[in-house]
Amino acid sequence: MVPVSGEAAAMKIRPTTDEDLGLFVDTLHVAFGRFPETPADDGGGVWWSALEMGRNLFAEAADGRPVGTAGAYSFELTLPGETVVPASGVTAVGVLPSHRRQGVLSAMMRHQLTELRGRGEFLSVLLASEALIYGRFGYGPATYTQRMTVPCHEAAFALPRARATADAPATGPDTGSVEVLRRAECVDILEEVYDRYRRAQPGALSRPHRWWASGAGQPPVSPAPRYIALHRDADGVPDGYAAYSVESGTLTVDETVATDDAAFTALARFVLRHDLVTEVVFKHLPPGHPLRHQFADFRAAQVSDTDWLWVRLLDVPRALTARGWFTDGELVLDVHDPFLGEHGRYLLTVRDSKAECVPTDREPDLSLDVRDLGSVYLGGTTPSTLVRAGHIRAHNPDAAALADALFRADRPPHCLHWF
User: Fold this and answer.
1) Which UniProt keywords are given for this protein, alphabetically ordered (predicted)?
2) Nearest alpha-carbon partner for 346 in 328, 330, 358
3) Is 134 a catalytic residue?
4) Superfamily of domain 6-121
C-alpha cells in the first residue's frame, strides 16, 4: 500500500449497502465541489439512480466518517469479433479535498482491483475525469470520440451515389423513413435499437434496462427533453435514431445510433436540413467516420477528438483469448503491472481467428506496461504508435508491424455510453 499519513493512516475501506446511498452521493458531490440535482418524485432521473450499492466502496477515517468513494457498474463490453463479455464500469471515484494526497485513492483502487479479480472478472473500464490520474492504476485510453461542428450553409452533400463497379455496386438511395418523436414516446424503441447496435460495435457498452427505466445517465437515457429523429428501414423496422435539442440556432445531437451507414446518412441529412438552424453539432462520432467525406466541401466540418473509454486488464491470458482476431501470428509480450507489483511474459498465438495465451520463457518481442496493453486491446490504438511514443519497447524490427496486424479490430472501437 502507498504510505499514508495523518488521519488517512487509520483509514479503512468497506463495501456500502443500500442504506448508504444518500451518504455515498453526498460524499461524492463534496469531493467534486458540486451540489446534487433534485431527483424525480420516484427517485429517478438522476445519474445515481443506477448505482449498484453492493459494488461500491467507502474509505472511512478513524472516526468512521467517509472520506472517499469508489463504485462499479455491471456492464457488457463488445470486443473485436463481436464477442460480448462482462466488464466492470468503474465510477463515482472521489476523495474529499481535506484527504487528498494521503494515499486514499491508491488504497481504494488497489482494494477495488483485488475485489474485481475475486469476482472472476478479467477487465474493467472507466471514463477518466482527468487524464493524469488513472494511468498509474493500469488503465489506458482505448477508444476515442469526435465532436463535429457543421455550419448548415456549408453542409451540401456530394453526389449521393458512388460510381458502380463490378466489385462495388452503387448504393441506392435510402428507402427508409425518418419521423420525429419525443423521447417519452419511444424509450422502448431506443433501448432496442441501441442494444442491437452495441452488440456489433467493438468498444460499446451495454445499457442495462434499469438505466432506461430510471432515466439514469445523460440524454437520451435521462428524461431531459429531447427530440428523437427515428429512422425506419424499408420494412418499417427501426434501425437508427438521433437524439437532439435546438437552442439559439444550434442543433446539438447527443448521440447518433445506426445499425448501418445508410441509416446514419439519412439521419445526418435530416438534422442538417432542420429549419431555423445555423449549425449542427454531432457530439459523438467514431474516429474515421465517413460523414466528413460525404460533404462536397471537406473543410465544412470542424472536428475535435478526445479519449473516452479506458481499459484495464486484470487477467492478461483470459482477456487476450476472449477477443476475436483477424491475422495469424505469434508474439511474445513482456507485461509489467507496477501498481499491483506483477510481471508476466506470455506467448500469444493466433490461428484461425482464435488466440492462445500462455506463460513463456522465450525472449520478448514487445515489453510494455499493462496500461499500454489496455490501450491496444480493442484496436483503437496501434502498438506501433506507442512504440514511437516510447511507451512500448520493440525488441526486433518486425515486432511493431506484427503487433499492429494482430491487434487490429474489424472496425474502429467506439463507446457512446456515459457512466
Assistant:
1) Acyltransferase, Transferase
2) 358
3) yes
4) Gcn5-related N-acetyltransferase (GNAT) (3.40.630.30)
